[in-house]
Amino acid sequence: MNRQFHQFFRSVILFGFFLFLLKIILSGDIQKFIAPRMMPYMYFTLAVLAILAIIQYFKSGFEEDDDSCSCGHDHDYSASRLKSTGIYLLFIIPIMTGMMFSDHILGSSAAANKGFKYEMRSAATKENIDEQTAPGDDEAQPGNNVILENPGVLTPKDLYPELYEDMQENDKLVLHKDNYIGTISLLEDGMDDYVGKEVVTHGFVFRENDFPSDQMVVGRFGISCCVADGGVYGMLVESEDLNQYKNDTWVEVRGVLEKVEFNGWELPLIIPTEIKPIEAPDEPYVYEKLEYTG
Amino acid sequence: MNNTSASISKISYLVLIGFLALFLFADFFSMDWLDIPSSLLDMNTMWISIVLEAIPFVLLGVFISSVIQIFIKEETLKRFIPKNPALALVPAVTIGAIFPVCECAIVPIVRRLLQKGMPLHVGIVILVSAPVLNPIVFLSTFYAFQTDTSIAWARMGLAFFASLMIGALIYRVYGNRNVLHASHTAHSHNHHDDGGNKIAQVFQHASDEFFDMGKFLIIGALVASAVQTFVAREALVNIGTGALAGPAVMMGLAYILSLCSEADAFVASSFKGLFSSSSILAFLVYGPMTDLKNTILMLAYFKKRFVLGFLIVVTITVYVITLVYQTFIL
User: Fold this and answer.
1) Closest in A15, A115, A147 to B148, CB measured
2) pLDDT at residue A150 above 50?
3) CB neighbours of A130 closer than 8 A, spacing ≥ 6?
4) Is residue A65's pLDDT more than 70?
5) Which of A100, A116, A138 is the last residue of a domain?
6) What number is the average pLDDT over the span A48-72?
7) Minimal CA–CA distance to B131: which of B16, B268, B294?
8) Which of A88, B180, B187, B216 could form a disulfide with B293 if both were Cys (CB 3.0 to 4.6 A apart)?
9) A100–B22 C-beta distance less than 8 A
10) Is the pLDDT of residue B246 over 50?
């Protein structure tokens, strides 16, 4: 494995990354990896990868230029063939699998693993409350306090003031991709104002292992930066004959909002009047609105 | 020899053709026939999304560190360091804070600074503070934790105090002993002085560092996505989220994942809601200061015993500082 080979192979890999990024940007599949507000960084990456690939390609032609950089910094061209093969495979595999499976959408299996976002949060908040009622108990996750005690952090009402007013005034709540996270956050914040209102929502079906057969969650993945930080925003649906809706099918649900006690917390629950299967939307994820940070 | 060269370049072309074929045609063929379990696909998607999201920040860091490595002379930096060991910590942290150098790039820089006569503890303060106390890391942490901006500030604050403490402890324990391998004698640092070549060098460095660090990033993202896909979050919570175990678990995770400090905030943010803020801070402060890949890099230049001592000092300091923060400030 000589230096020239390394230089050339690296330019091929950089070019591969460039092609992959270009492909998912052109096809729009990039939204299945990264939230839209990260896009400027993606264009920057695309440009830099192109430049680096070109420079690396021309460098591969000049083998005699070995000492152009004597800066004591290891230009690690591994001598061992096995090791370099392994390292380059590390770069090649994600490029290839990325191009092959770029349209994959996270569904119920990931949801079950990550946990139902509001349930997770509720659990954390609950401990928080427990701790406030029992201040002597220092062992219980004091860190969670920061969420409530930090005055700089906004409650859902501050985050979505217009949406909050809309929801107070209207007797019918219709969720769509732009108000999805906001509506559900507000519902979780306090159900009392909304019980009895009509609701129209949609999402994929998923169930946790311990769900009774008359319950399921209809939700969507909410992403703040990249898919790895996603969590499920959704609402419980309770009815007979839910078994016909398999996990991962997308449905639209019309119904009436109720509240339900879950681990001592009030959560929204839909008593459906109509459930119909729908096509999965082109943009399967919803994105957290973060511009409001103070 | 010629034969192997020929077969190797054949491989490069095959890979290139593979990339082009996938670029052009992958969308026209359904991959359903492969029947890959959806959990594996979930992992693949998360893996790539972490890598994609980290790359711009890695590239930014790589570029700036290349520019510094090539355009700024260490002698200039050295002139600003006072003789008094305690006073010397201040400019060291300042240097660390100003210079947006990744933890991978900082190791060879510090080695060179030490060779040129910089006191050991000052060098170590730069080593631990530069990767975490820097504008790009602040920016990415701020982005990743926009719902709780106190994390970004606390990360910087804790890292600042931890760096000073680490510097002081290293001074107590090691004084100004030579902890570098004897074989690495100072070598002259004469770059060609023509300006055009320097620009070329920046790109040379950028590309090389992209590969040097890229492999650690890709492995780190792979481990992180595998943990996320196959270990239910409840299990992680069960390992330990308590006041004492939480930070320790997250520090262990930071060490193993070896993420670049410019990108680790995004991984950390996927743990919010699961671990307390102080545990997440332990992850964010400890990871850039030392981790598995950094230890490997350090062993290349520093004596084994020192690397071990350094690890112990950093680990204890960050753990204690996190607990203090958790107890008195949160």
Assistant:
1) A147
2) no
3) A137, A140
4) no
5) A100
6) 67
7) B294
8) B216
9) yes
10) yes
Whether the predicted model's global pTM rises above the 0.90 cut? no
Residue to test with chain B: of A21, A99, A122, A290, most B Cβ within 10 A: A99
Distance CA B60, CA B317 (A): 29
**CATH code for position A270:** 2.40.50.140
Residue A293 resides in a domain: no
Which of B48, B55, B146 to mutate to probe the A interface, most A CBs <10 Å? B48
Task: Verify whether the Cβ–Cβ distance A138 to B59 is below 8 Å.
Answer: no
- Distance between terminal CA atoms of chain B? 64
Nearest CA in chain A to B297: A74
> B284 vs chain A: nearest CA distance in angstroms?
15
Residue A226 in any domain: the answer is yes
B54 close to B225: Cβ distance less than 8 angstroms: no
**A223 and A115 together in one domain:** yes
Overall number of domains in chain A = 2
Q: Are residues A66 and A136 in the same domain?
A: no
* Domain termination residue (choose one: A43, A67, A100): A100
Strand A198-206 relative to strand A215-223, pairing: antiparallel
Q: Which domain holds residue A145?
A: 108-287
Tell me: pLDDT of A76 over 60.
Answer: no
pLDDT digits (tens, 9 = 90+) for B299-309: 877 899 999 99
Enter the ipTM.
Answer: 0.78
Task: Give the Cα separation of B329 and A145 in Å (integer).
Answer: 11
Count interface pairs A-B at CB distance under 8 A. 264
